[in-house]
Every structure is written in C-alpha cells, then in structure tokens.
Amino acid sequence: MTMRTIHRAVTGALATAAVTAAVLTVPAAAGTADGTAAGRHDRHSATRSAMEAQIRAGIPGVLGRTRDAGSTWQGSAGVADLDTGRPRLPQDHFRIGSVSKVFTSVVLLQLEAEGRLSLDDSVDRWLPGVVRGNGHDGRKITVRQLLNHTSGIYNYTADPEFQKLIGPGFREHRFETHTPAELVKIATAHAPDFRPGEGWNYSNTNYILAGMITEKVTGHSYATEIERRVIRPLGLRGTTLPGTSPKMPDPHGTAYTSALSQDPGTKPFDATELNPSWGGAAGEIISTAGDLNRFYAALIGGKLLPEAQQRELQTTVSTGGKMPGARYGLGVAEIPLSCGVRVWSHTGGIHGSVTLAASTADGKHTAAFNLNGDWAGDLGALTEAEFCGKAPASDSAARTPDRAPQKVMTLR
User: Fold this and answer.
1) Among the four 14, 41, 87, 171, which has the fewest Cβ within 10 Å?
2) Rounded to an integer, what distance in angstroms lies between the CA atom of residue 99 and that of residue 104?
3) Where is the segment annotated Disordered (predicted)?
4) Which DSSP state fits 282?
5) Is 146 in a helix, a strand, or coil?
6) Which residues contact 399 (CB under 8 A, 6 or more apart)?
7) Which residues span the domain enclosing 336?
8) Could you please report the per-residue DSSP string of 175-219?
C-alpha cells in the first residue's frame, strides 16, 4: 500500500491541464532551519527532493514547513507566480480546502465536552426536516456519522450539474454565493450512497450539515465559533474564514487551476480569487503553513480537546478500501507510512490549491505543504520524505504524470 494511493484517495481527482516547458524552468528548492547547529546533517534532504519532484511533474510552486523536536524547517520549490517568477514565501496565505473539516470537527467536539450536544444526537434533532428525500432521513443519522463520513448522505460536489459550475463553468460562476441549505438540497435530490452506518464515503455534505448544527446549537455562525475556539486561542494570525469574499490576504501567490478544460494543451487559469461559499464549513478556510503546524501540534498533542473527546476524534472507521491502508476518525485520517510511522493527516483541494497537514501521534512532529497547481503532484511522496526520510525515485520524480481526463475539482 503506497502513500501515493492513499493521498490520491483523500485529495480526490482534480481537473487536468498541460504545463509548457517554459513553465518548468523554475528555481530549485530552498530551505532554512531554526534551532539546528551549523554543519549538522541535513535531515530534510529527502523533503527537498520530494518538493523538487513536484516541480518536475508540472506544479508551479510548492511551499513546506515542518516542526520537529523544537526545530522549525521551511522550504520552497518553484514559483508563486509564473509571470513574475516570485518565489513562494514562508508567510504566504493559501486556501486549505478540506483541511477546514478538522477545524469544524473540533468545534463540535468541544460543544459535546460542554454538554451542549452529543455525537449520538440525530441530525434531525438539530435540523428537523432538513435531511429528507430520496431515501435520506436525518432521524436515522447521527452527528458522529457526519464527522466520520458514515452517514451515507450524497456528496453535493459530485452532482453532475454542480460539477459543471466548479469545472468548465468556473470562470462564469466563480463569484456566485451558495448557501448551506442550497448545497444540502442538491445532495438530497440524489439517493443516499448507503444506509447510515453501513458504509463509508467521503461527502462534503456531512460537514456543511456540521456547520449548520454548530449554528443551531450556539446561535453563532460556525466561522465565529472556529475563530473563538481555535484561531484566537492558538494565535493563528494567518488563518481566516472569508465567507463570501473572493479576496486573499497578503502575501499570497497565484493559484493555478486546470478545472476549466480537460484539454491537456490548455494553459492553467488564475483561480486565486473565488467565492468559497460553495465549500463552507467543508472547505472555505485560508491559512499558512506555520498556522497549520501549530494547529496540528495542538490538536493531535491533546491541547484542544478533553481526553474523552480526544478519544472520539481518533476513534477510526474503515474506509472500505477507498483510502487503502488508512482509517478515518472525526475529521482526521490515520495513515500508515512505509517506515512504520503512523501520522494523523488531512488533505484539501480547491481550485489552484492542494494542501496537506500531518502530525505524528504525539503531536511533536508536524508538517504542512501546499501546491499552487491542481493537476499534478504527489502529497504521499512529500509525507514519506518528511516522516520517513524517503526521497522519491529519480526516474518517477522527473516524469510528468499522464494527462488522462479526470473529474473536475472537488473539495477533498
């Protein structure tokens, strides 16, 4: 079982496009470390190699930051902007897609710790009548089943018409606002994937509903609760929930997508600005590599949740082979690596931005990576390099992936 297979399953298929040879003429990876004595063996050489391999595969730029045993390392490869050639900066902001789900899950687990809801509550208790139709029944689905993707609720981003909006129609529809109720209605227009608790399927609808439940329980938006409970206590100064705003905070690079066309000769499109309401509680957050490391260290290290809720977070279910070798908890996946290390991780994909955040079980070794292109890349190789010291094979690293048609952008 390879990390490449696992992370492709989590990230989901992204639209494809070719990158010209001129695009591939970019700076090599650079890195700096804090707390490392001069002349000490460079333990991040494998990570550098894996980052450089992403550039050879056609991604414009890669940004990475790790924290281990009190030392911080940061590096980059390629560029943040193909026109100006600006390198990616440690403080750059980027959209984290479905890594947002981890933040949403933490809020619900904290609410359970406060006795304000139970993971065994039905969805219908908090959102009566919202999940109904075509076999969907919120009376038979629990909050826990939303968070671990065993609800069976159809994934609204898989809807063929919605795929057109976020794929070939992205240019025309990128600034439109989508409400949570609208997204749930798209999902319930389809039959469930399976009966609640009898299978596993990654569904963004689950976390849209989780955000709606947060608002019902607290009387505040899920964004307000994430800011109050996670962002401010941890001092995540680069992390924001933009709502319907298409703007990116400075500094930031350019996010390049291939979602507009399946033609491998199509030039990547600048998708930096978009209205992320179509992702909502499932994928709207903007962050930085440093903030993601701090968040994962606190979460997996047990500093955000009481012991009972920490156990719930890390109680996993089988993904039925859809994430081979991995098991899924409440917003985080437990993933085995080739060297025997297990990491808690989530990935996220949204137009022009693919993100990985991961931590060892003790929260002491964390890593965050971001790619500013969505048509190639291997997050599994980055994970293996950082946590196992395993550099990618030179032949595969230099080879551009096949450009076979794939599904358009989904939040994964």
Assistant:
1) 41
2) 9
3) 237-267, 391-412
4) G
5) helix
6) 56, 57
7) 3-35+42-342+373-398
8) T----HHHHHHHHHTS--SSSTTS-----HHHHHHHHHHHHHHHS
The CA–CA distances, whole Å, from 322 to 191, 303, 354 equal 20, 30, 19
List per-residue pLDDT tens for the chain, 412 residues long: 334 433 443 334 332 222 222 222 233 456 655 443 333 346 789 999 999 999 999 999 999 999 998 899 999 999 999 999 999 999 999 999 999 999 999 999 999 999 999 999 999 999 999 999 999 999 999 999 999 999 999 999 999 999 999 999 999 999 999 999 999 999 999 999 999 999 999 999 999 999 999 999 999 999 999 999 999 999 999 999 999 999 999 999 999 998 887 666 678 999 999 999 999 999 999 999 999 999 999 999 999 999 999 999 999 999 998 888 899 999 999 999 999 999 999 999 999 999 999 999 999 999 999 999 999 889 999 999 999 998 887 634 333 333 332 333 345 6
CATH number of the domain enclosing 234: 3.40.710.10
Closest by CA position to 284, among listed 248, 243, 324? 243
Residue 364 lies in a domain: no
Which residues does the annotation mark as catalytic? 98
Question: What is the rounded distance in angstroms from the CA atom of residue 295 to the CA atom of residue 128?
Answer: 33
Contacts with 263 (C-beta within 8 Å, 6 or more apart), sequence order: 17
Position 127 in a domain: yes
The Cα–Cα gap between 56 and 388 comes to 22
Neighbours of 37 (CB within 10 A): 6
| DSSP β-bridge partners for residue 77 | 62
Q: Which amino acid belongs to residue 66?
A: T
- What does the alpha-carbon distance between residue 252 and residue 254 come to, in Å, rounded to a whole number? 7
Report the number of distinct structural domains present in the chain.
1
CA–CA distance, 172 with 157 (Å, rounded to integer): 17
Nearest Cα neighbor of 328 from 340, 314, 311, 308 is 314
**Six-digit token pair at 16?**
């494809």
**Residue (of 289, 307, 312, 295) closest to 369 by Cα position:** 289
Q: Is residue 26 part of a domain?
A: yes
91 assigned to some structural domain? yes
The residue among 280, 264, 351 whose CA lies nearest residue 14 is 351
